[in-house]
Amino acid sequence: MNPLKVSDTFAMTYDAFHKPNCRQLVSMGGSRSSKSYSILQMLMLELIKRKNIKITVWRNMAVTCRTTVLEDFENIIMFDEKIYKDFVHNKQAGSFLYKPTGSRIVFNGADQIGKVLGSQQNISFFNEVTEFSKDVYLQISQRTSEKLICDY
Asked: Is-above-0.90 flag for pTM?
């Protein structure tokens, strides 16, 4: 297995995420500061380690989520050929299933209100959280059982 190349931002994010009693994690920084990429690397590790969890990645619009964050995630899982082969990409649903654990990650937009109101997940990642309305953020938060991650 190839080692995952990570940044200092990853280390700080990983440590903060795994603190007990931490429900919400906010990462802020400039463009290209590796905050989103580091969060996605950490979420990939959660999918690999934990059974049957659901992670939802949110962006203000579904098309933006899939053309930016989903593409980054796909690049991340390609770091190791064996791990990449264990992921099943459902392009229509905008999701990846990690077969060995049954865990999945879904890339959604808050512009699809049915997805916001009907979605339940263990972990939510709000990419560019400042683009979300307070109401949408609260609706998703109520439907997230474990952790909330935000970046901007």
From this structure: yes
